[in-house]
Design a protein that fits this description.
The chain has 2 domains: 134 residues, Nucleotidyltransferase, domain 5 (2-Layer Sandwich); 206 residues, Rossmann fold, CATH 3.40.50.1240. The protein has 13 helices and 13 strands. By secondary structure, it is α/β, with parallel strands linked by helices. 38% of the residues lie in helices and 22% in strands. The radius of gyration is 23 Å and the shape is elongated. A 6-stranded mixed beta sheet has the order 10-9-11-6-12-13, with helices on both faces. It has a 5-stranded mixed beta sheet with strand order 3-2-1-4-5, sandwiched between helices. A hairpin with a 5-residue loop joins β2 and β3.
């Protein structure tokens, strides 16, 4: 019996969701000798489900070996942080897996979780890939049914989607004072830079943003506040920032730099009309309908160039709302009913058959 063991676990999904498998290795903590290996194909699932499955298999194997203390090493930031209790388990599909893993962990006198780079988790990663290869080689006896728990299943969407990770820029002096900030080129505050760094760290821990050493494309509005936020993300991923003018914020015209109250005092009737009709442009500026058309064209151009890939899009509140509105196939009232925080993360997928799926809206867990 070995009292102190090391678990290395991993999981992967080819498609996310797609054919998935996990691998787990249990080693003697003192000598590094391999005591047990576990691997299995889990069917159609996400990366996170496969990673949790690998952890569960590793904990079960350690319990069978009679271990009392366990060190878990994984390259999944989400699993490590959730099992350590630092991140909440918000997604319904993760909650039962988290509960099962915690029940297994409670059987040991101590379990410690550590995040490691993917390169240091090659043994478990290799087992996970072997499991996925074996699963892919099997020929099902019956036609494979679509996974009805995924958006692809219940919408009928087909093809590989283009996934947009939408990041709003960090804080500026204009946002602190709640002033209209459209084309005015203002930099991030020190707090804004911290927010950008937190968002960058979050994206740096996500699966699928660096493939075979190549970072996902990072496309940003040309304004300095988005460029600074995007550069922080590029530094975390080892990528580079591209600029697209279609992602720039609304042109607020004569209201630029004014607070809401100042603009209302100046143009009370006009601003009231502007807030109720998206076809009306701010004086000397741009209408929300115009922004929507501009952002749709930008989206179409990005899909034409990067179709089927994951992209990081760093922009402003109105263009991000426009992209989410497209994903939801919602009306213009969404612009006034959806709140997006600074440095927030939202995710939308656009399928080649015209379907779409909004996966995440205004997530700021990385800022807490």
């Amino acid at each position: 019996m070995t009292e102190h063991v090391l678990i290395e676990a991993d999981g992967g999904s080819r498609g996310n969701p797609g054919p998935a498998g996990y691998g787990a290795v249990v080693k003697d903590a003192a000598s590094g000798a391999v005591l047990a290996e576990r691997k299995a194909y889990v069917g159609i699932a996400t990366n996170n489900v496969a990673e949790y499955s690998g952890l569960i298999a590793g904990l079960a194997a350690a319990a069978e070996l009679g271990a009392s203390t366990v060190d878990v090493r994984m390259d999944s930031k989400l699993v490590v942080e959730q099992m350590s209790g630092r991140w909440k388990v918000k997604h319904p599909s993760m909650q039962p897996l988290n509960a099962e893993a915690k029940e297994l962990a409670s059987r040991f006198s101590r379990v410690r979780y550590e995040w490691i780079p993917r390169a240091e988790n090659s043994h478990a990663d290799g087992l996970a890939n072997e499991a996925m290869d074996a699963g892919a080689a099997k020929k099902p006896e019956k036609p494979v049914k679509q996974d009805r728990s995924s958006p692809v299943g219940w919408t009928g969407a087909t093809g590989t989607p283009t996934k947009l990770l939408l990041v709003r820029h960090g804080q500026t002096a204009m946002s602190v004072e709640k002033r209209y900030s459209g084309r005015g080129d203002v930099p991030l505050t020190e707090h804004g830079k911290q927010q950008a760094a937190a968002a960058a760290k979050r994206l740096g821990s996500m699966e699928g943003l660096v493939v075979d050493g190549e970072a996902a494309p990072i496309i940003a509005s040309p304004l300095i506040r988005t460029q600074q936020t995007a550069q922080a993300i590029a530094d975390a991923l080892g990528g580079r920032v591209e600029t697209h003018p279609g992602l720039i914020e609304t042109d607020f015209g004569d209201w630029e730099g004014l607070t809401f109250k100042e603009a209302m005092d100046r143009d009370p009737e006009f601003q009231t009309a502007w807030l109720s009709d998206t076809s009306i442009a701010a004086p000397g500026g741009e209408s929300f309908d115009g922004v929507h058309r501009r952002v749709r064209k930008a989206r179409d151009e990005l899909i034409a160039r990067y179709g089927g890939r994951t992209l990081v899009v760093v922009s402003h509140v109105t263009p991000i709302k426009a992209l989410l509105r497209m994903g939801l196939d919602a009306g213009p009232s969404l612009l006034f009913r959806l709140h997006l925080d600074l440095a927030s993360l939202s995710i939308v997928e656009f399928y080649p058959d015209g379907n779409a799926s909004v996966r995440l809206v205004n997530d700021i867990s990385h800022l807490s």
